[in-house]
Amino acid sequence: MAIDFPRYLLAKQTVDDRALNKDVLRALIVHLAGHPRDADLVVTEIGGGIGTMLVRLLRWDILPPRVRYILLDVMPENIAYARDWLPCWAAAHGWQVAFDPQGVLSLENGVRTLECHLRCADLFDYVEQNPPQAHLLIAHAVLDLLPIPETLPKIARLLRPDGLAWLTLNFDGATIFQPELTLSDLQISSLPLSPFASPDSHIISLYHQTMRTRSGGDSEAGRHLLNYFVQSGIQILAAGASDWIVYPRGGSYPADEAYFLRCILHFFEESLGQHPALSPGLLHAWLEKRRAQVEAGQLVYIAHQMDFLVAFHSAPEHAT
Ligand SMILES: C[S@@+](CC[C@H](N)C(=O)[O-])C[C@H]1O[C@@H](n2cnc3c(N)ncnc32)[C@H](O)[C@@H]1O
Question: The pTM is what?
């Protein structure tokens, strides 16, 4: 199955809405309430995809009245999708929408104005261009794709000295599928598994390994971020779990969450399809069962993640 990445990001919205840690969100809201109402709040979102976080912040009415939002993503198809989708969403929700000749999207609704700069670039290249420093840096479902801690001092450069970073949905080493599958469920009699490993734990642990080896990411990003903040003396204003918990209601999934689950299974297939330590027969049988469970509205999926609101420049090396 090929996946439609923008549709995956759209389908992820309801899962993320539930998952985002509301204590961390409340701390962000309290902080933003202190921003002067007559001054622009500059927000930089890295790895912003198609703009679902910006839409969430508008839906949840979290932003102050004047905002300059820089939405950065390395995938041209995401930025192209955002360029169509954001104005359509805004127009359907009562905003007046315009693009200026430079392609900056302006939203206005009588009480609020928002300027959105859509930038297609690798964030590490972007940091080197000395871009405007933001009051708020957002990285949502992104940092676990990147090396930690090396990435952190680089993205800290995107923030003003008094700025905060809201770093959300950082995967933290636990993936759970229910119901568990045994070898006999998969009609496989013997496989070179450790005597203690179930098919699920074998496949999941290899998948976590590929997050590190294939993409240079971190399958325990949540705890490593937390440890880095503590060891570096970075002030943590709030921290908490933001697990994805996906389950059927009355035999089917809400919104487009069945598609979200199909994408998760696709990521397993894509990452593990050629893995030398995994029998193709086992992976095939496991995926077939899990996909049938999605279609039957039977699969439960949980991924443990963590959210943070931090003041990067509170670290001693930044102190004046
Ligand atoms: C899992 S997606 C999340 C997208 C969006 N934050 C959301 O949740 O809808 C991760 C995003 O990070 C982007 N990304 C990964 N590495 C990047 C980099 N080095 N610079 C900029 N964007 C990057 C990808 O293109 C992708 O859109």
Answer: 0.96
